[in-house]
Amino acid sequence: MGFTSPSYKMAKLKYNGGGDWYANRTALPNLIEFCNKNLSTNFYVAEDVVDVGSEELYNYSFIYMTGHGNVVFSDAEALNLRRYLIGGGFLHIDDNYGLDKFIRPQMKKVFPELDFVELPPNHKIYHQKFKFPGGLPKIHEHDNKRPQGFALIYKGRVVCYYTYECDLGNGWEDFGTYPSDTQETRLKALRMGANLIQYALTN
Predict the structure, then answer these.
(1) DSSP 92
(2) Where is each DUF4159 domain found (predicted)?
(3) What does the pLDDT look like over 145-186, one tens digit per residue?
């Protein structure tokens, strides 16, 4: 059997405003490894970083965005992200605690006509290779609130999936990064992440 070059890359979204877009440093490499092993995907083993206003955005099927703080999209950046998502791209926004009040108005600039809607537990994003009959799992505790998975749906397709009160990316990081998170919790997070990848690549 010959060597097959990687077919896909994942990227973390770099944005302005001062928020820590670079958080969860080991998350995507671990998710990539998990997906290549369990979904037979062929991702390049390292993550890329892509600026929200860059034409390079279009080179990725899956973009991951995280952070705790402020987010600012210029009009040009918002339009670029909109075109990327309408054209078949997929954005996963992962609230790392504190992102919510910043990201909602910025995504409204991207899709003024759309509102985030909570996906029900029977949505197929929770029923890919791994089954989550209760919907989005809870990974990391902050405010004793239930985890919620919101989506922006454009012409029937989920173009943006937003994890709130979950901290999914924390669960993808190296085991031991968060001592209170068990291996079972980490596996749950990686499986949910794999579902997102499978969904993004097939819808």
Answers:
(1) E
(2) 10-201
(3) 899 999 999 999 999 999 999 989 999 998 766 667 788 999
- Name the residue range of residue 29's domain: 10-202
Please give the tally of structural domains in the chain: 1
Residue 19 falls within a domain, yes or no? yes
Beta strand 148-154 with 117-118 is: antiparallel
Amino acid identity for residue 154 in this structure: Y
87-103 per-residue burial string, b: 16 or more CB within 10 A, e: under 16:
eebbbbbbbbeebeebb
Single out the residue of 198, 20, 193, 16 nearest to residue 92, CA to CA: 193
Quick check: is 109 in a domain?
Answer: yes
φ and ψ of 84, to 5 deg: -60, -45
- Please check whether residue 1 lies inside any domain of the structure: no
Instruction: List the CATH number of the domain containing 125.
Output: 3.40.50.12140
